[in-house]
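Worked Example 4.2. Read the sequence first, then its structure tokens.
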Amino acid sequence: MFYSFIKILATIVFHIAFNVKVRGRDHITSAGQILFCNHLSYIDPIFLINAFPRKSGKIHFMAKETLWKKLIFRIALPLMNVFPVKRGEGDQDALALAAEYAKTATLGIFPEGTRAKDHVMKRFKSGAALIATTTGSPLLPCCIYYEKGLAFRRKITIRFGEKMNPADYENTRALTRAMKERTEELLAQKHNA
């Protein structure tokens, strides 16, 4: 219920505060996919929740466990379908939950593992590719593009691309590299239709 409230509130606030355009919604299906996206800001998940069609269900985001140290995040993140992962520890519980969402819903991951505040995309970690390879779930590429920082009425483009089949790649390393390349291709389109 809170997720739906966030979606409605975000729609109102984002259309007042920002000039948001969403491209490529036709690539989104309702279940069994892994959404991966570049990461610029703490509000990126809200941008994606807002851009995701209601008929396609909810996005379940994986985020670093250290965010739960702050009270505001401990309260808000679970309400927005965000679950913690212990990075670098092979968190089996989080991986099992992620695999379940990847097969039955939409799993959302920011493969850089951190925000690229300078707008220079970081190296992609292999977690999303590993989950996709293990589950056979297709990968839905996405990018959030805006110039400089977030500001009132800033033009923001959220672009979804064609899905990627993990079976088309030799291994997780090749898939991870292809995921970053696909994100770079989407970003290169900037605000173009």
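Now turn to a second chain, presented in exactly the same format:
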Amino acid sequence: MVMDAHAQSAPQAARPRSPAAAALLSLVLPGLGQFYLGDRASAVTVFCIVAALLAGLAWSLADGALLSAILLGVIYVLVWIPSVVDAARAAGRQGPSLMAGANPWYVIFMLLAAGPAAIPMLWHSRAFSRGEKIAWTVFVILIAVSFIALVLFVIPRMLDWAEARLDALPQDAYAASLRRLIENLR
């Protein structure tokens, strides 16, 4: 018997599950509550997003980029809290799953905030047509590639240019502070 991806990932109706247990599991690790409920596709989607956010957060903290770490932490909370609520609601059968892409605005927010890590959520969602899914996927990947190119190629060249221009300035406290800023940005 052939089943589509949505039918395979839907929570199992035969075994009632505890909303409190599902919420607690998602509180420990976003997506774990969805996994407990049998919604594997939503669990994998949330795990992908959380892994990307935690990797970015660790990288930001290791680099001393406090602002980036704070922004990633806020995005993490915006994944974590809905994951907990979603797991409890799904266990109690109180509405469509947010993590399965029931709310298109949440899916778009996650695509813009978590980038390619949220693409599984898009493709799991029934709120988008196939053409919209392809368009959003291409858009998100292009944005990610553009950002990577910006960080790897454009910004270093801009810093080199700015440093070369500093040599023409008088070597005073202002030039020294600009030089320190450039060194910190590298």
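Notes for the reader: Confidence is low (pLDDT under 50) at residues 1-12. The longest helix spans residues 130-166.
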